[in-house]
Amino acid sequence: MTHMLHAAARRVQWGRTSAAKRAACLVAAAYGLRVLYPIIRRRMKRASCESGPQDAGRAETGREVPHRSGSREKASPAVDAEFFQQLLELRKLFFPKLVSSELGLLCLHSVALVSRTFLSIYVAALDGKIVKSIVEKKPRSFVFKLIKWLMIAIPATFVNSAIRYLECKLALAFRTRLVDHAYETYFANQTYYRVISMDGRLANPDQSLTEDIMMFSQSVAHLYSNLTKPILDVVLTSYTLIRTARSRGANPIGPTVLAGLVVYATARVLKACSPKFGKLVAEEAHKKGYLRFMHSRIIANVEEIAFYRGHKVEMKQLQKSYKALADQMNLILSKRLWYIMLEQFLMKYVWSSCGMIMVAVPIITATGFADGELEDGQKQAMVSERTEAFTTSRNLLVSAADAIERIMSSYKEVTELAGYTARVYNMFSVFDEVKRGIYRRNAVIQESENNSKNEDKAELHIEGPLEIKGQVIDVDHGIICENVPIITPNGDVVVSRLNFKVEEGMNLLITGPNGCGKSSLFRILSGLWPVYGGVLYKPPPQHMFYIPQRKS
Fold it and tell me: Are 205 and 427 in contact (CB under 8 A)?
């Protein structure tokens, strides 16, 4: 018995090197568990109680919590029916008619993508023939096929460059269409003034008109290129692989089912672990616009800031805005770190191992590649044919795997596109409603101030959308106001009914404290504010001249 124990002890005895390796592996595993466990725990908590804060806020206040500017119904853009509806509405701006330059660029771009797919299949087959000539030791055939391979590289590289060129041209054409329509709407009926002064849904129109349109156009053009070619690659390469396997007597059902299961499992895992990139990108764009607004505000008020020595306060505001933007960008980078790590592991290593099985099984089991009772020369030829089939199939499978990887990676780009689509669509919606006289002010409401205002001045404020019932009649001489109210864009009633008459040749001086409606009256006379009631008789705008309070 003692001899048996000593023998077992010698059998399981570890050396110093092996013990150190095992200890290092245990430490690395413990550290990885310590880092990943809080992330997984937070993600599970966030998924289980994602709607908790909003429901709690509604339960406490008994009303809807006001959204930020730019999102009227949903706080976070997502890939849903609303996203596709918004994209279809914006498509009418991309292609205003059936025959257009944008549609021509799109067709050329599609032809280039299809050509690149067929060139990839041809190059994969040519690679297999080159390897076969090497195995068969035929230098002339090898040199001929290598020259052929180099010659086919010329149109292949041109097509690659043309795809990139046409994608950029398409993005620029889309942006030009959107910018032209946006400018026409922005400067029609003084929309540029009313969006900023009378409506609160767009905090930074300059951000929406410049960067949001640019990013949206680039994202649409890139996503079309990044989806069309991979889908075509998957279809054609799968058809070629199945046809090759059947021609050699192999059964392609097993490898096809394996590929489908692996792709489906990868898609489910990535979808479950994917962060909300649409919401994150939309929030990043909002913070970029606010930082730009802070800089433009300093430029517009530079004299006042210097006069009152407010540079320290402005610097703190800028630093606070930049810190918020930097935190948002760091949050996106940290989420992309783990997501891309998981994505690369599944699509590079798991798919590569499954791909080797998919290529090897048909070649091993195919009756057309069996040696049988062949002579040595015939066996050598069969080896070269198997090598050619393996090389061609492997290249085609790599192309198909790369295409599927781009399709699945495009989901992240689609979610980002949802954020840009929501911002651009919201901008055009606000422009259209403001142009038609529909205004909404989104303000943060404080309960204490609301209670005091509702008790003391309930009759001087109008809740909800304001209805324009007044009339404006152009006359040649004089100004007459008959029961015209002065109402601010916030709904505050400055004057309930104003009646006065100014005839030609009269001099009139209007005095009063701040907020009594002096400037508001002239905004109504100039047509900047609507007439919500009564009748206003005044000369047409081209016969009146106004001096604004502020010098440019």
Answer: yes
